[in-house]
Prior knowledge:
Blueprint: H1 10-20, E1 22-23, E2 25-26, E3 32-37, E4 44-48, E5 52-57, E6 64-72, E7 76-77, H2 81-91, E8 98-108, E9 113-122, E10 125-137, E11 141-151, E12 160-162, E13 166-168, E14 171-181
Antiparallel strand pairs: 1-5, 2-14, 3-4, 3-14, 4-7, 5-6, 6-8, 8-9, 9-10, 10-11, 11-14, 12-13
Amino acid sequence: MRTKFKSILWLPLMLVAAAHGSPVSMDMDQSGVAIAVKATIDSFVAQLQDYDASVTVAPQTGQVEAAVFRFNVSSVRTGNVKRDRDMNEWQQTDRFPDVIFALTALEPLIGGKSIARGQLRFHGVERTVSFPISIETNKQTIVMDGDVTIDTRDYGLPVIKKYFILMVDPILNLHFHLQGKLADS
């Protein structure tokens, strides 16, 4: 079941995105987000179960004009119910439930890749982030693949340590594959 997110920040971003281009209809069956977490013992890859991605493209060129990606931290699943509960307690999901990324610039590179820049709000802290992304479009579909590295300490979260020797690396590696249909297809 898809969750509908509501916030004062989200609505203006969606209206701005919708005003400039043609919306992309995201194919959630073909899309996915994975978060790799390294730990002294028991590293894992969590899956994002529910999220909203709003992407608009220029109708004439198929170029991405705007993008907003949002999810509730409680929708991250690690495959271990106790670990999920501990993660939500550590992250204070009850106080800071939503993570929001809003694209502010897309800078093309040689070879078909680009650098995406934007504002990421996580754990109540907003920071500018940038990451490589590949975007492929044709007349019917758009496919976006990228990898984002996030240091949770930059967002005010403590490093998780137990028994003086066990530690969870504060650097998270998020990989996304987003696919959708263009409005005219």
